[in-house]
Predict the structure.
Amino acid sequence: YKNPNTAGGRTAMVHLFEWPWRSIARECEDFLGPHSFGGVQISPPHEHRILYDTNIQRPWYEAYQPVSYKLVSRRGNRAEFIDMVQRCNNAGVRIYVDAVVNHMCGGDAGVGKGYGDSAYDTDAYAFAEVPYDISHFNVPQGYEQCPTGGPINTYNSAQIVRNCNLEGLLDLDHSQGYVRDRIVDYFNDVINIGVAGFRVDASKHMWPDNIQAIFDMTDNLNTAYFPGNTRPFFYQEVIDQDTGEAVTAAEYINIARVTDFIYGREVSETFKGYKSLDSLSSFGIHWGVKISDETAVVFIDNHDNQRGHGGGGNVLMYKNQEDYKLAIAFMLSWPHGFPRIMSSYKFDQQWTGPPADNDWNTEEPTFNADGSCVSTDSYGWVCEHRWRGIKNMVEWRNQAGTEPVQNFWGDYSRLAFSRGNRAFIAIGRGGSSINERLQTGLPSGEYCNMAVVDYDSSARSCTGHSTVNVDSSGYADISISGNSGDNLLFIHVGASK
Ligand code: LM2
Ligand code: CA
């Protein structure tokens, strides 16, 4: 379950948070495929509660309140979902589903209908479409099942964390075969459509044995897109900040991949200046980061902690601009874990939903001539994945492959290294310039500095003027000013003149 099942050695994914299915389909064809992105984590596709309030309007987090497993959500219907999966696979880009199966919607929902018109009654614990009834939930079974009688009010007890209600969300009892079967039916439905894997939301709040049993019952991937007998990719969302809680990420690492929240915190703090950049030379499992290369999904920020949800944290995000770009570039350069790039929309309040018209129809992203997304200072899609320094680092990572870190050079505010003889990167933080003759590890040639120019492969030319000349012994004059726009330099063997 640890293989991301990407096509052609692709090594990174992007989370297109709240993007509609039709926009994702187009992005796979026009951008992600051509730029060698491996996959997309999509926002939850299942039917969810509709939240509306004059203050918070239509918050993004209604998506985390399931009403049924029908594929109808604010982001699109079943036909649009199928179309997206097909078109992305055909573009060589995999789809990973954000699966919310720990719970159904909040107990405060009462009686109503979800996005696809399915009925719910939370007083009766009834979800007609699945169907679930009161016997399928933990809390109604009494204090022996959930010792608090309702809410998760401490993280010191695994039983409370896993059998009580997270934020008032009605908690399912996964020890029951019936409940597992409904979840497996949902997983198999989207597997048969052609998805490659799943982010398993709130895995910390489910028992590892039950998660394992659910994974083991899933079908192999669709052979229209994947080799026979390919297992789905699973990455379990477990927030473990190493604070001594009862539940730890270590309990999940033998099952499938696990999200590593310490990784983003450590890299963020380093690029904020709390630690020296050259200390990153030993970055990895011995550095505080808990989850090993082949088991970790790594990221700097996610949709929760960039807005103070999900444990919050001291992480960089798009609002930090240049420091954030450098942190993402470092993540993509370093051979540890399967990296996930966050792609956001602008927000000022933590509940703000995606860009939308007056009827709450999510707006499709539109693009400037340079490929960036159209937005104003406070509104619109950010599209971090289209920033040049980020999009071109995805190709850099693919080119670096499994080559090791070599030729590491650096000091408090600067670093440079190569990945074997295939790729080289230099970073200067906070205005620190680099003017050095450094060993790049690369064969001699004239390379495009992909941090500031793009590469035209048919003409074998840089579509700009910034190049790096590597001599026959691998050395080159590396020069950046360290200021905004000129704090990053990277080259690889796939982009030389
Ligand atoms: C996650 N990972 O484990 C998601 O990444 C995170 O975004 C989800 O919380 C959470 N688990 C449950 O799937 C979000 C959001 C919460 C929000 C829930 C449900 O961070 O604030 O809770 O989704 O929409 C909201 C209200 C809360 C209310 C609850 C139920 O903020 O006050 O509790 O809905 O109505 C009564
Ligand atoms: Ca639970």
The CA atoms of residues 133 and 303 lie 31 Å apart. The first helix runs from residue 21 to 32. The mean pLDDT is 97.
